[in-house]
Amino acid sequence: MRLCGPCGRVGPHGNALAPRAQGASDHGSIAAGAPRGRTFRPLPMPHLLPYFQVSRDPAVWLMQLLAIVLVSAAVDAVLQRLLAGAAHAADRHRSVWDDALLQAARLPARLLVWGLGLSAALRLWQAVQPSRLFDAVPDAQRLAVIGIAALLSMRFIRHAEVNLADPARSAKAVDAATARSIGKLLRLCVAIAAALMAMQTLGISVSGLMAMGGVGGIAIGFAAKDLLANFFGGLMIYWDKPFREGDWIRSPDHAIEGTVEDIGWRLTRIRTFEMRPIYVPNALFNNIVVENASRMTHWRISTELGIDYRDAAKLPAICEDLRQMLQTHPGIDAQQTLIVRFNQMADSSLNILLYCFTHTTDWGEYLRVQEDVYLKVMDTVARHGAELPFPTQTVYLPDLAARQAAAAAGAASA
C-alpha cells in the first residue's frame, strides 16, 4: 500500500486517490476554520442550549424547576401504575408476602420519586444562589432515605400482619391478636433502629447514649415501674390469650364486664353492656380472675319450681313429664347434665330442681329457649291439675273461739 497526495489517502487496492477539495468532508461540509479530521454537526435547536446549563436568568432556572416537577410527576405516575398492576396480579394469586410488599411500596415509592425531584431542585437552587443553608442538604437526604426505608418496613409489616391473619390468603391463618402483637413488636424494633441510625447520621454518639442509658435506666425503671408492668401485662395477654378482641369477659373480683374492643400495650378497652368504655391497665389482669363467657360451650338453665303442698301426690308424675319434655326439647342438649328432681320442702311449696344446658351459646337464642322451656313447664303443671303457690303463712291463735264468746257475753251484759 502506497501513500500519495497531501492527505496521504490511498484507495482500497493501494492506488492513490485524489486529494479532497478544500472544505470537503465525507459527511458534508466542514465549518470554516475547523481543524481537519473532525466533523461538527450544528444543533438542530441551538436556542434550547441555555436550558441545559446552569444560569442565573430567572426565566431559565424557573423553566428548569418546572421541568423537574413535570419529570417527577411523570415518573411517579408511571411507577404507581406499574405497582398497581403488579399488586393486582399478585392479588389474583392470593400471595401473602408479594401482595404485602407491593401494597406497602406505593407510598414510599412516591415519596422517593418526589424526594429525588426535590433534591435536584435544591441542587439547582444552590448553583444559582449559593448559601450555607444548603450545607445541611446531604444530612437531610440521608435522613429522608432512612425515613422512607423505615416507612416501607412498617407498612410491609402491617400488610403482612393482615394477610397472615386472612384465611383466604394463608393456608394456616395466624390468630389475629397474635399477628397484631408480633406486628407491633416488629414495628417498635424498626422505629428504634431508624431512630438510632438517624442519631448516628446527625453526629450523635449512640454508644455514649447507650452508656448513659445504662446508668439512667435504673432511675427510669423505678419511675416507669407501672408503665413496664402494664407493658409486660399486655405481652402476657398476647402470649397466654385468656381473651381476644370481641370476647365477652367479666371479673368476679372487680366490676368489669363487657366486650373487649382493643388490647393495647398499656390499656385494654372494654365496652360494657351500657355502651360505656372501661379502660383497664394490663397489669391488673395478672392479679384478678377473668371469666371469658365467649368461650362457653353451652348456656345453663337452672331454676326451682314450687308445687302446692296439697298437690304432693302429683309430684312424681309432674317430675317424669318435665324430664321427658327436657330430653326431647330441640333447644336442650340431652347429652349434658339434665336434672329434674324434687329437692326441697320449703315453707309454702314443694320445690323441684330443673337443671339443663342449651345447644346454643348465643345469648338471644338462649333466652328464647329458656322462655319456651318455662312456658312448657307451666303447661305441664296445669295439665296435671296442680298449682304454683304464692308464698303464704298461716297463723294459729289458740282458744280464739272461747275468747270471742267471752267478749261477746261481756258486751251483752253491759
Structure keywords:
414 residues, alpha+beta, five-stranded antiparallel sheet, three-stranded antiparallel sheet, 9 helices, 8 strands, elongated, disordered N terminus
Approximately how much beta-strand content do the residues carry?
5-15%
Overall average pLDDT: 79
First-last Cα distance: 179 Å
The largest beta-sheet arranges its strands as 4-3-2-1-5
Alpha plus pi helix count: 9
Tell me the helix content: 40-55%
Q: What is the 3D shape? A: elongated
- According to DSSP, the number of beta strands is 8
Q: What is the H-and-E element order?
A: HHHHHHEEEEEEHEEHH
Major beta sheet, specifics?
5 strands, antiparallel
Low-pLDDT segments: 1-35
Structural class: alpha+beta
**Overall radius of gyration:** 45 Å
Would you mind describing this structure in some detail?
The chain is an alpha+beta fold. It is elongated. It has helices at 58-92, 97-128, 137-164, 176-201, 206-223, 225-240, 315-328, 363-383, 400-413, and strands at residues 248-251, 256-263, 267-271, 277-281, 291-292, 300-307, 339-345, 350-357. The protein has 9 helices and 8 strands. Strand 1 (248-251) and strand 2 form a beta hairpin. The strands form 2 sheets. It has a 5-stranded antiparallel β-sheet with strand order 4-3-2-1-5. The protein has a 3-stranded antiparallel β-sheet with strand order 6-8-7, with helices on one face.
